[in-house]
Design goal:
Layout (H helix, E strand, L loop, with lengths): L3 E4 L2 E4 L2 E2 H8 L3 E5 H14 L6 E6 L6 H9 L3 E4 L2 H9 L7 E3 L6 H10 L3 E4 L2 H13 L4 E8 L21 E2 L3 H9 L4 E7 L10 H19 L6 E3 L17 H12 L5 E4 L3 H4 L3 E11 L6 E4 L8 H5 L5 E3 L6 E7 L8 E9 L6 E4 L20 E6 L2 E6 L4 H6 L8
Parallel strand pairs: 4-20, 5-6, 5-13, 6-7, 7-8, 8-9, 9-10, 9-11, 11-12, 12-13, 15-17
Antiparallel strand pairs: 1-2, 2-3, 4-14, 14-15, 14-19, 16-19, 17-18, 20-21
Helix pairs in contact: 2-9, 5-6, 6-7, 8-9
The structure holds ligand LLP.
The site of ligand LLP has 23 residues, from helix 10 and helix 11.
Length: 418
């Protein structure tokens, strides 16, 4: 459920007409709804009511906007980060360092030092080599790093190949068969205190079966590690729950997911950690755009909008579907190709799509753009970086300024020998 709906024939975000935001901020612009963010944060937590001891860490990569992080911090969420930059954002939004989990396959020495100095709660380490580096860095600082070992359970998440992370040939984590040996060797090092294991098999999962398979393997590993004398106090089950991008998508509900987790983790006697991203922010954001012109095509017309693949990369990268709706629909429909102005054919949001009829100058939205939207924006084709707005009831604020092409150009210089 979200708070983007038609009121008297006009699309609103909560109590703000989207046309007002377009007039005042311009387009393209991401628009987030605070009420939707808070609702999703609460629904996800409520779904986990059957899990006694838990820690929720919002996956910052899905939407690192400071205002969004602040809203989620207000709902009791910690953060899952994958770079020093993301960590600094989480801290700036008021998330306690101890509630931050630092994931990622390529943490640098500098990032480890930075995170340790801030008092980060946990590192999820992805290789023996990384664990050794972390131990050395922490030891040299006179600290002990809390860490969990990320396991690659070799389970097919059944999602798009580019967002699948739990197959043996993916770069993430260490295999189940080598996990216990690595855990043992790392636990003997000074500077690092292993406290558990972590798993994350992929994103936009539309079935619970692969999660259940992965969690069951993790349960066996936890028992095995305990048998070898390791005190396992934390198990991180990652994120990955899908959201409905299309009417016929039917992702498991947070309640179904929570029931599965409660059942599978019963008796684990550990803090169960979660790293949800998309399920919290996906439907809490739309990308508001204006139609530049409609150009005839061989079959369908091309609706050229002022948002492009540099603003919303998901369709170009993953053939992702985002519903397209007119802000002031007249009740008629057309079949069209929706494209941006960028000079390559991958700048296509949809082909032959049945949409509200739109004409040059009309406003429209791409739905379910709150996750992996603005954060993946670039300035390709020397376009600016898209602005972001947060709506709260009948008020709204710009929470990320549009960065103009001139500002981007100002960061470049031509050497005097040219
Ligand atoms: N934890 C880890 C270790 C992750 O790698 C990810 C996502 C998450 C949590 C959050 O997963 P979520 O709950 O959002 O599914 N750019 C792609 C998605 C990449 C996901 C990367 N990892 C997209 O636009 O679909």
């Amino acid at each position: 459920m979200d708070h983007f709906s038609l009121v008297d024939g006009q699309l609103f975000a909560e109590k703000v007409p989207l046309s007002r935001i377009a007039d005042e901020v311009g387009t393209p612009v991401y628009v987030y709804s605070r009420a939707t963010l808070e609702r999703h944060a609460d629904v996800f937590r409520d779904g986990l009511a059957g899990v006694e001891r838990k820690h929720l860490a919002f996956a910052v990569k899905s939407n690192p906007n400071l205002a969004v992080l602040k809203v989620l911090a207000g709902r009791g969420y910690g953060a899952d980060v994958v770079s020093a930059g993301e960590m600094d954002r989480a801290l700036a939004a008021g998330i306690a360092a101890g509630d931050i989990v630092f994931s990622g396959v390529g943490k640098t020495e500098a990032e480890m030092r930075h995170a340790l100095a801030q008092g980060v709660g946990q590192f999820n380490i992805e290789s023996e080599e990384e664990g050794r580096m972390l131990a050395e860095v922490a030891n040299a600082m006179g600290l002990t790093a809390s860490a969990s070992l990320r396991i690659n359970p070799d389970v097919d998440a059944g999602t798009h190949a580019k967002i699948s992370t739990g197959k043996a040939d993916n770069k993430f984590g260490v295999g189940l068969h080598v996990g216990p040996g690595i855990y043992q060797r790392l636990s003997e090092l000074p500077g690092i205190a292993l406290r558990g294991v972590a798993v994350h098999i992929g994103s936009q999962l539309l079935s619970l079966d692969p999660l259940e398979a992965a969690f069951a393997k993790i349960g066996e590993l936890v028992a095995h590690l305990r048998g070898a004398g390791h005190a396992i106090t934390h198990v991180d089950l990652g994120g990955g729950l899908g959201v409905p991008y299309q009417a016929d998508n039917d992702p498991p509900s947070p309640a179904d997911y929570g029931a599965l987790v409660a059942r599978v983790t019963k008796g684990w006697d550990a803090v169960i950690q979660f790293e949800p991203g998309r399920v919290i922010v996906g439907n809490a954001g739309v990308l508001l755009t204006r139609v530049i012109r409609v150009k005839p095509g061989i079959h369908d017309p091309f609706v050229v909008v002022d948002a492009a693949m540099n603003d919303l990369a998901r369709p170009a990268l993953y053939d992702a579907w985002h519903d397209f709706e007119a802000v002031a629909p007249d009740g008629t429909r057309m079949s069209a190709n929706i494209v941006g102005p960028i000079c390559e054919s991958s700048d296509t949001f949809a082909m032959g799509r049945d949409i509200d009829t739109v004409a040059a100058g009309d406003l429209a939205i791409f739905r379910t753009a709150g996750a992996y939207g603005a954060t993946m924006a670039s300035s390709y084709n020397s376009r600016g970086i898209v602005a972001e707005v947060l709506v709260d009831g009948d008020r709204f604020a710009v929470v990320a300024n549009r960065i103009s092409p001139a500002e981007i150009m100002a960061a470049e210089q031509v050497p005097d020998w040219l």
